[in-house]
Amino acid sequence: MEKPLPILIENCVQIAWDYLERSNQINDASFASRFLTKHIEALVRQGERRQLLLSNRAINAYLQIRETQKAA
What we know:
The chain is an all-alpha fold and 72 residues long. The protein has helices at residues 5-22, 29-45, 51-71. Helix content is 78%, strand content 0%.
């Protein structure tokens, strides 16, 4: 049985957040929270439901945007 979408999104955000926090990648908590939530929601709207894939893609996208911000 699939999890309800709000629960799936919440779990994925939490997994991504925990990883990024443990690896000391979060400088702006508000930005990180909004970014992870929006990214995961967009993937869910495209039909993706695999929790770890959603979390990992959000982590990778966040790290990529952080690198872009550092370079600017």
